[in-house]
Predict the 3D structure of the following.
Amino acid sequence: MKTTFEKIDKTKFNIDETVEYMVKKITDICEKIGPRAPGSPQEFEAQKSMAADLEKWSDEVKFEDFTVHRQAFMGFIPFTVSMAILATVFFFAKPIVGFILTILGFIPLILEFLMYKRFLDPLFKGHPSHNVIATRKASGETKKRIIFIGHSDSQYEWILNYKLGGTGMKLFLIPAVVGLVVCCIANLVKFIVVDVNAVNTDAANTFFFVVGIFLCVFVVPYIGFLFFQSYTKSVPGANDNLSGCLSVMSVLKLMDEADIRFENTDVQVLLTGSEEAGLRGAKAYAETHEKELKEIETVVVACDTMRDLEYMAVYDRDLSGTLQHDKQAKELVKKAGKNCDLDLPYASIYLGACDAAAFTQKGIKATGFAAMDPTPPRYYHTRLDTPELLVPEALRIGAEVLLETACLYDSEGLQ
């Protein structure tokens, strides 16, 4: 089967120039605008810069604003750590209190960090954030729509990943979570044995004293967890996720240069704000446009971190592994990859999420597409994520797969 690129007039279509443009645009944003914390003026400035380019290749470009409580997503950390340390202390004196404290510590961790619920938002200050929507309209009646997403913001620095790397970071985070689970169980068991059943033998007292000392060991990773990330310094975000933004923008650029306009398929680029604050931009867009997204067939492809080619994949599961993306959407991108001579595997996000999750939750066909080492690599969410680490070949392949996805969807639809 011939790919889109074999059918395009090469005098109009130049992928090399597009890759050069992508690298230059990312570099300019990083150098002239800088890090883009969720809901920051820099996030908005970067979006305006990218929107100016999108206007050249689109029929319509518009901004939509929403409010983000940007510190809420990681705001659970001091509270959860405090609950864990207090629960360790209460294990020795009042285990039922310790048990309750661990449960309280788990609630925001699970709802905010694992499930991306807006649980703590009311407790934090709101900031204006924006989504950018660029549309290349069908030449005739719009019968279906494909949306390509990249997020414009960059994360607050993950200090532990910068200092220790992905593996070293896990040596603090995993014991901290395990410690909270163990502390919860230990407090419950001691309460049942000692307080409920009144077991007060020397053997039982010795056993629980040893358990208490063991629980104290976890105080070290608890304290380490407090330094997980900065709350003031965001990172350059050249790869995560300007590489994704420019990859999806390239679809409209290449279509415009090759004079491709589908007869019945709208092609949209959505540059979301505040993804790093818990998918807030994607959630805002999906909620605002849910009705119209379901009125005609729509498929969503969220692109994130287009760098580590050996890990390029289509996302099967998302939202910390709790959410499965649409089968047809996944197969569409996988087939597009095959048409570009790539055997893209399915991968899962077992800790975290991408923007596609917000649409899948609303019942809209969606999937994610990325090329990132899940370890994670040391540049991930750190000051090392600079333009110097860009991989032009990954940007090229990402752009080719995304454009092929658009053309394949127009010609064959969802299978």
Residues 116 and 278 are 5 Å apart (CA to CA).
